[in-house]
Write a sequence for this structure.
């Protein structure tokens, strides 16, 4: 729709593979010029769009050379374009579906790819061919679809890793499951902490759920505030607020207050299990597996520590039995990110963990391990 001063819509036939070869070096291309006066509408059908290029060029002629309708409204013009949209994105631009995407329906929508330069380049090349070739093969070029929206590479969030493998994996699992691309800043080699240094820091920092939080990963976002969040659980809750996991609704809508309370309580419980694990005596020497002395937390005898640890682990065995296939519900939650890295350490390092004793946790551990990308995260840590 053209509103204001009259302009000329110029149509020109596209090149084709048959007319752009060596046999026809200078093919004749047709041109049409259509006046677009005030309040006029130009309707472009699919066949015309396939064969013709179209556009309105800026009129840079002096005013005295223009007609009355061309210089009306002070020579200004507004163009409104209406298109039938066949490709859609979610409100937060994180999912995409439709004619031009890989997934064609909203129920099967795929994740938007950011920073995928190869896919951006492929889509730009396809655009160029469509604009130049009258015999453009739409199905061959566009049929598979593209899962990119922006045609420029955007800055990605940064994750600064620490020397705590569990803390790192917690955050990386969350980013993986939320399909958030990020760059890694590995800070683990910048400071070597001796046992004495760790002990002094334990005594100078508050006890929170049994952890001293000596070492923290840091997540640096790309929002306007350039937000920085430190600490594994703090990052999990920050990401959950921005990009909550999709909840599968079966029957009544979920109670978000109940979900939030559960997220807080069970993520704290996962830290309690981690504390118990870090203070678990070695089966062979009787010494602790890791140095985790914490003021204000009374030390227990060897047998009592082991019993308390197994008691905590049995609570999680019950959760795994109750909430298949995941640890807190029938869909992936923040609690899986907080708990599974702790379980993974226990499975691989504690001789007392046996499938016969903890069958549900063993099955849960394998289910998560088989999820896309999880094994590659573990490989990066080795």
């Amino acid at each position: 729709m053209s509103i204001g001063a009259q302009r000329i819509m110029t149509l020109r036939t596209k090149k084709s593979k048959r007319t752009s070869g060596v046999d026809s070096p200078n093919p004749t291309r047709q041109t049409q010029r259509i006046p677009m006066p005030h309040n006029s509408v130009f309707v472009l059908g699919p066949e015309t769009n396939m064969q013709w290029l179209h556009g309105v060029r800026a009129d840079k002629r002096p005013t005295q050379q223009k007609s009355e309708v061309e210089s009306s409204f002070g020579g200004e013009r507004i163009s409104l374009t209406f298109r039938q949209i066949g490709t859609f994105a979610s409100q937060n631009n994180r999912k995409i579906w439709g004619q031009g995407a890989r997934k064609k329906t909203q129920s099967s929508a795929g994740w938007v790819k950011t920073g995928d330069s190869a896919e951006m380049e492929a889509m730009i090349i396809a655009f160029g061919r469509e604009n130049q070739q009258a015999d453009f093969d739409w199905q061959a070029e566009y049929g598979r679809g593209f899962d990119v929206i922006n045609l420029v590479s955007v800055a990605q969030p940064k994750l600064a890793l620490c020397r705590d493998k569990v803390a790192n994996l917690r955050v990386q699992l969350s980013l993986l499951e939320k399909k958030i691309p990020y760059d890694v800043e590995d800070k683990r080699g910048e400071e070597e902490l001796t046992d004495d240094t760790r002990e002094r820091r334990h005594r100078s920092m508050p006890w929170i759920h049994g952890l001293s939080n000596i070492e923290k990963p840091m997540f640096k976002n790309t929002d306007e505030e350039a937000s920085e969040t430190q600490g594994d659980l703090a990052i999990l809750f920050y990401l959950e607020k921005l990009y909550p996991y999709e909840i599968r609704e079966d029957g009544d809508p979920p109670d978000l207050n109940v979900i939030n309370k559960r997220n807080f309580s069970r993520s704290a419980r996962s830290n309690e299990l981690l504390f118990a694990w870090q203070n678990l005596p070695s089966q062979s020497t009787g010494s602790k597996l890791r140095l985790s002395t914490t003021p204000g937390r009374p030390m227990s005898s060897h047998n009592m520590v082991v019993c308390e640890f197994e008691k905590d682990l049995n609570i999680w065995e019950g959760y795994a039995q109750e909430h298949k296939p995941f640890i807190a519900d029938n869909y992936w939650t923040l609690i899986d990110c907080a708990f599974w890295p702790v379980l993974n350490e226990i499975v691989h390092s504690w001789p007392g963990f046996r499938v016969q004793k903890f069958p549900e946790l063993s099955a849960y551990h394998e289910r998560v391990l088989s999820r896309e990308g999880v094994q590659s995260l573990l490989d990066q840590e080795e």
